[in-house]
Amino acid sequence: MTRALVVQTAWLGDVLLTTPLLDALAARLGAVDVLVTPDAAPLLATHSAVAAVLTYDKRGRERGLGALWRKARALRARRYDLAVLAQGSFRSGLLVRAAGIPRRIGFADDAAAWWCTERRARPTGHETERLLALADATPVSHRGAMSLALTDADHATAAAALAAAGVTGAFVALAPGSARPTKRWPFYRELATMLAAEVPVVVIGASGDGWGPADAGRGVADLSGLPLRASAAVLARAAAAVVNDSAPLHLAQAVGTPVVALFGPTHPRLGFGPRGPRDVALGLDLDCRPCSAHGGQRCPLRHHRCLRALSVPTVQDAVRQVLAPREVSCV
Q1: Which of 5, 168, 278, 312 is the most exposed place for a label (fewest CB within 10 A)?
Q2: Which domains does the chain have, with CATH numbers?
Q3: Predicted TM-score (pTM) of this structure
């Protein structure tokens, strides 16, 4: 039996985007091991396609070349036959080469290609479908859908948090955070106030996402700081979610919640946008957009007009469209 390792040590959203690849590999090889960052490990802890979740804290205590060699030795001891590089950095390629994994598959245009024994051409389309090329899988109707195996405990934690906040019926979830500052729409507080006059609002995300108890007005419940899987379970109960181009977008997609997704420096055509029938992607038609595939720390032109000029009423109207479904178009 082939022992396979999938390397995906990028951001939380990237791990979710990799789940169709995991399903495709598991259908052929059986459950696979996955190497992710410690923050992302909970996303795959109960996934049926995953045999073991291994962690690599490349931005923290395992930063540096010495830690890389130690991680390579640990991987070598597991005697993998195959490594699939869903995250194709030079470091990831070096890691699996140093681990002595004989068959190493990656994209030909990634930095990791230098270390790969097999290089795939990157197809066009959504990122979930592009990644399937690493498994030689062709996207079909049942593939390309992200998945997150939430447990009864996850749902119970979410239900208790909502009940404690007095939220008992339909609500809209807001996720104001993003790891990249330029992808954060700056008007979530104003949107929360306007939406709360029509429907309860629940704020989710990590503590420190720029939202706090003082920002929770009447009809707005602050549930930021919940564990990642519990936040996903809250999203699963939402009638709709407003998200940036960030991990909560992909969490919502994985649990089937329709979104209003706000794109600034990035663009859905880059392959990371929502694809549900009720989803709406909003963004402004600017000459400078997109300026980045992943966003950055600051606007290169110092005006951040791509998100600052996206008005609260425009987003509120999009939420209304999602809550009362009718045919909509995405940018």
Answers
A1: 168
A2: 4-135 (3.40.50.2000), 153-323 (3.40.50.2000)
A3: 0.92
